[in-house]
Amino acid sequence: MDFLQTLVSIFMQYGYFAVFGILILCGFGLPVPEDISLTAGGVISGLGYANVHIMFLVGMAGVLLGDCFVFWLGSYYGEKALTLPVLRTVLHPERFDKVREQFKKYGRWVVFFGRFMPGLRMPIFFTAGTSKQITFLRFLFTDGFAALISVPIWVYLGYYGAHNFDELMGWVRNGQTIILGLVGLAITVVLFYWWRRKHREARGQK
Questions:
Q1: Which end of the chain is more exposed for a tag (fewer CB within 10 A), N or C?
Q2: What's the rounded Cα separation, in Å, for the pair 27 and 22?
């Protein structure tokens, strides 16, 4: 709670620019939880210091810009970028190799689920760039679609819980699990309808 209150105090003074800047730095590997930053942006909106809908757009822009920079870094410099101090501390060779193996197996699905994995987002997005298996536009679409699920949840969660920090922190602690559950449910529904359509087409061909 102390960290959330610290971010809220900073964001109350500097508004959208502070939220935008912190989120970009989160994409670069800054050890600040992106989810808490988005929630803090929602909190200052709930307290009347910002418009929550604009805050959602600022959150989306900051998140995507940071992610795209990391992807570009991997795409342009490749594994040479691992020697940079900003990457060396969060993306050591062992982690890079593990992420690369997963990317070879599952492709852009790793990018999609990476958005919901704090601590792994940056390594996954960097590896996506180095892999050359996904274009920038496809990366942007996949990451953007995932962000459309997570970003509004955190921002509006902060907005509606702005006047009850204790309850808000309870929701924040369980938020990642809830988001992954919703994503899993959505994927299950999509797969079910896809399977049923294929089943009907197969029966129609008989």
A1: C
A2: 9
Q: Is residue 175 within 8 Å of residue 34, measured between CB atoms?
A: no
First to last CA, the chain: 62
User: From CA 151, how far away is CA 148, in angstroms rounded?
Assistant: 6
Look at residue 38 and tell me whether its pLDDT is greater than 90. Answer: yes
Collect all residues with Cβ–Cβ distance below 8 Å to 165 and sequence separation of at least 6: 1, 4, 5
What integer pLDDT is reported at residue 105 of this predicted model? 72
**What is the DSSP-derived secondary structure letter of residue 83?**
G
What is the pLDDT at residue 5?
Answer: 84
Percentage with pLDDT > 70 across the chain = 75
0.85 surpassed by pTM = no
